[in-house]
């Protein structure tokens, strides 16, 4: 018997005599005891707030990204221990791959995106500088800082590892301690992964805690700086988000709920096209992977009326081939549902669907015992009049075919789900894709468009990706998770900071135009990454741009654009007084002015951002450059990235070009 334990304030607390019994979905035998009796949730919150929060906030985003990456790599090393428990949840090895390795990859990607897209500091800068005054002495900046409370993360049973990691990684990256509450039915697998994290010692004390079993009065103790992130059924979400304490305190509540996801077969995707086959393959896979217990699974298949019979035939044939049985058998394609209780639930919901749709397929090979269930396909004769098929989520291998008159009707039917996590569209016609996104986009968190061009590499209808938001409007919970930095911001507070350039530079650790520039003690190219300070800079000498320079540059590069070569034509152009220097000539001369050529700490120029040419440079004008350390970001290896604010001015001190120059610079030592 497994005895998964809670982990509270640095102590493991095992199940008591009153703990619930978790059964094996194949045999019905009890396999685990799960209960949270004896937990003092006040102690859990104090430990998170008093120990975990300060420890996490003592590190910066990049430090925490390194921790999350280390956790993910450690779990990867030990993944076979997790796979050993996976069949007990009813999942095949392939199902487990989505959960275990999918969860690890999600954490790795989130950590990597945090390091690439967030500053190497405590404060996230959200968007550009807002100039709030004419002379530029009063600026505004949106920044985000970690919330000062605890993230309570309540997960569904179907992805015990992914579910934990996809929420845990963003919260830790933000700098918020977490209390994880897995679904009881599969908590032993979550606990095994969680125990590995604690044993690794990678995270600071108080950063993570685990509740196996009920949360009792935990939510009643939360306040305005806490967040609840919930995944599960709409009914539970409604009950939890209605908690008077959460409402009174304005506690952030993120919900990922069930959803009636729809796959739409485009009017062009007739039998014989690659898109028709892609639709059938995807639909059959979505029904049977994890025995249909995926929040993103296709519940409604919306197809043109003319091809309904072809769809039924193609799907029946594919579903018939699915081998159902013991999930630990490598030949098995579909295991049982997670529990007998869940089987009863799915059976009852199928009956609701059957009240307004005809069953057109039922798999004959599902074992009768345990929590096994046969995949079932229904056909609705009147999808406009139907209600249950748009509202009832049978969280198993059950789907309904809905005939549509045309694309607009298909979009209307897809939207009848009241808000979904994902809708897919199978089309090779860009006009169909555009029309569908316009008509249906407001109702779905993600639109997956499949065709022959992307099929080889596409990740599938059902896969939430860490790069893209996961969530959906309305019925799907109105929440969002993942989506790179967007997912991390759910655990941070955005604050609009206003002040002078000098104040904002210090607050954000990023140089803002208008704040004083301190002269570098020597040429900046002679200083290593660690010695350079934000706000240090140099101003170069002047260089005069001649007509010869312009003609030479034109001949050398082949850029003979008339504004550089033809005085009359240039003058007729509303932007130029006559012949002017190429913008790229100005950039090249600028580099010639600020570069210190000998080998040194500057290793490479890796790009430039936000280039603007502000004023033309005419023959006879003189230019010079101001180069200021704008931002520093440590990178792996012995170097870091310096972003320089480069401003090119003319002899009248007017800016002619501005950009952010990126260089890799060696670290000290
Ligand atoms: P559920 O019954 O709603 O339970 C979800 C979680 O809430 C579980 O951890 C459950 O714990 C907990 N919970 C239930 N009552 C609670 C209470 N009073 N206080 C605190 N926690 C409570 O859902 P499920 O059966 O686990 O999962 C299936 C559903 O989740 C499906 O409807 C599916 O569509 C949805 N889902 C959605 C997503 C998504 O990303 N949108 C992902 C996966 C699943 P116990 O297990 O201990 O009751």
List the helices and strands and how they pair.
Blueprint: E1 6-8, E2 11-13, E3 20-23, E4 30-34, H1 41-57, H2 61-77, H3 79-85, H4 93-117, E5 124-125, E6 130-131, E7 139-146, E8 151-154, H5 162-174, E9 178-181, H6 187-200, E10 208-210, E11 227-231, H7 234-241, H8 244-249, E12 252-256, E13 262-265, H9 274-288, E14 300-304, H10 308-320, H11 340-354, E15 358-362, E16 376-379, H12 388-391, E17 398-404, H13 407-415, E18 420-426, H14 430-440, E19 444-450, E20 469-472, E21 479-482, H15 485-488, E22 492-499, H16 501-508, E23 518-519, E24 536-539, E25 543-544, H17 547-557, H18 562-565, H19 567-572, H20 583-594, E26 602-613, E27 622-634, E28 639-650, E29 655-666
Parallel strand pairs: 8-9, 8-11, 9-10, 11-12, 13-14, 13-18, 14-17, 16-17, 18-19, 23-24
Antiparallel strand pairs: 1-2, 3-4, 5-7, 6-7, 7-22, 15-16, 20-21, 24-27, 25-27, 26-29, 27-28, 28-29
Helix pairs in contact: 2-4, 2-5, 4-5, 9-10, 13-14
């Amino acid at each position: 018997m497994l005895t998964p334990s809670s982990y509270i304030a640095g102590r493991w607390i095992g199940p008591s005599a009153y703990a619930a019994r978790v059964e094996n979905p194949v045999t019905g035998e009890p396999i685990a005891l799960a209960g949270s009796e004896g937990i003092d949730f006040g102690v859990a919150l104090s430990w998170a707030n008093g120990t975990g929060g300060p420890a996490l906030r003592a590190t910066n985003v990049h430090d925490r990204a390194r921790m999350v990456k280390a956790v993910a790599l450690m779990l990867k090393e030990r993944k076979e221990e997790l796979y050993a428990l996976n069949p007990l949840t009813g999942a095949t090895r392939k199902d487990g791959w989505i959960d275990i390795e999918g969860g690890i990859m999600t954490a790795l990607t989130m950590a990597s995106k945090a390091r690439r897209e967030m500053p190497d500091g405590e404060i996230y800068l959200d968007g550009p500088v807002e100039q709030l005054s004419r002379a530029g002495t009063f600026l505004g900046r949106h920044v985000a800082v970690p919330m000062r409370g605890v993230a309570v993360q309540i997960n569904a049973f179907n992805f015990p590892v992914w579910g934990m990691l996809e929420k845990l990684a963003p919260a830790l990256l933000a700098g918020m301690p977490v209390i994880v509450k897995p679904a009881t039915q599969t908590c032993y697998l979550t606990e095994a992964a969680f125990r590995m994290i604690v044993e690794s010692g990678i995270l600071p004390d108080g950063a993570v805690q685990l509740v196996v079993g009920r949360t009792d009065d935990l939510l009643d103790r939360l306040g305005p700086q806490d967040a609840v992130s919930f995944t599960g059924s709409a009914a539970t979400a409604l009950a939890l988000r209605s908690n008077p304490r959460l409402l009174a305190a304005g506690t952030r509540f993120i919900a990922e709920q069930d959803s009636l996801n729809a796959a739409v077969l485009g009017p062009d995707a007739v039998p014989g096209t690659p898109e028709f086959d892609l639709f059938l393959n995807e639909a059959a896979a979505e029904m049977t992977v994890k025995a249909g217990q995926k929040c993103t699974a296709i519940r409604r298949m919306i197809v043109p009326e003319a091809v309904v019979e072809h769809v039924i035939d193609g799907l029946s044939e594919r579903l018939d081939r699915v081998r159902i049985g013991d999930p630990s058998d490598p030949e098995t394609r579909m295991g049982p549902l997670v529990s007998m209780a869940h089987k009863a639930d799915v059976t009852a919901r199928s009956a609701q669907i059957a009240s307004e749709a005809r069953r057109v397929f039922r798999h004959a090979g599902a074992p009768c015992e345990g929590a096994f269930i046969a995949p079932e396909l229904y056909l609705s004769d009147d999808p406009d009049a139907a209600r249950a098929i748009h509202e009832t989520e049978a969280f198993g291998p059950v789907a309904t075919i809905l005939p549509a008159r045309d694309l607009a009707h298909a979009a209307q039917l897809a939207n009848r789900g009241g808000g979904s996590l994902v809708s897919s569209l199978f089309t090779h016609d860009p006009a169909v894709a555009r029309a569908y996104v316009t008509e249906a986009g407001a109702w779905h968190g993600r639109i997956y468009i499949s065709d022959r061009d992307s099929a080889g590499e596409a990740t599938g209808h059902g896969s939430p990706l860490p790069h893209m938001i996961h969530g959906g409007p309305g019925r799907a919970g109105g929440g969002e998770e993942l989506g790179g930095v967007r997912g991390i911001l759910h655990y941070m507070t955005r604050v609009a900071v206003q002040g002078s350039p000098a104040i904002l530079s210090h607050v954000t650790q990023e140089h803002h135009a208008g704040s004083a520039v301190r002269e570098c003690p020597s040429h900046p190219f002679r200083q290593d990454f660690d010695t350079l300070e934000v706000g240090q800079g140099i101003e170069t000498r002047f260089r005069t741009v001649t007509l010869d320079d312009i003609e030479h540059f034109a001949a050398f590069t082949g850029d003979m654009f008339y504004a550089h070569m033809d005085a009359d034509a240039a003058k007729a152009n509303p932007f130029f007084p006559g012949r002017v220097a190429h913008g790229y000539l100005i950039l090249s001369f600028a580099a010639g002015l600020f570069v210190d050529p000998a080998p040194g700490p500057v290793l490479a120029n890796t790009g430039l951002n936000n280039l603007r040419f502000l004023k033309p440079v005419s023959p006879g004008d003189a230019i010079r450059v101001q180069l200021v350390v704008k931002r520093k970001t440590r990178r792996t290896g012995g170097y870091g990235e310096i972003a320089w604010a480069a401003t090119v001015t003319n002899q009248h001190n007017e800016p002619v070009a501005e950009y952010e120059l990126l260089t890799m610079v060696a670290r000290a030592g």
